[in-house]
Amino acid sequence: MGRTWDITLPYTDPATGGPLNWNGVDQYDHPLWSWEHNKVITDLDRTVGNIKLNYKLFKWIGLTYQAGVNTLVQRRQQIIDKYSRAYSGDGAIIEDDVWTQEIESNLLAQINHKFGSSFDINATFGHNVNQRTIDQQAYLGRGIISSGIYDLDNTQNVVPYGGTYSRRRIVGVFWRYYVWIS
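Structure (tokenized):
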């Protein structure tokens, strides 16, 4: 806001609930009215979990399996209230939902054995799987019907506003071994 603005003056039209702008009604919304009426609301849920299992197949062979998941759900809602200059004064609601998930899986076999007095082996064999999935969908509702109810069902026209889906999976196999002969 400009330094010369009188912030004690009213900025909401009592008849319509729309913005009053003392510096020119057609230029932009009054900043204090926008602060009260035009919002971005974000809701975030995250779930993280993992499991690790160890099993001794023999005294000298062990198996380890470890898996984890990280899921993030983010719901964003942008509200451009009725009577704002944006969207011709009709108002709009944008809902943008993003779901991401990463799964990691590792299986290891460890061998550590001495064969007689002159032959030792120390080895690790395993595989790794990593998968990342992203699903985003957004919708635009134009023309808010009733002020104060900020839901896509309270708009005159709902259209897709973009979206994407991707999944990437990487699978790897690895090994490391040492053999000592003395």
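The radius of gyration is 30 Å. The chain has a mean pLDDT of 91.
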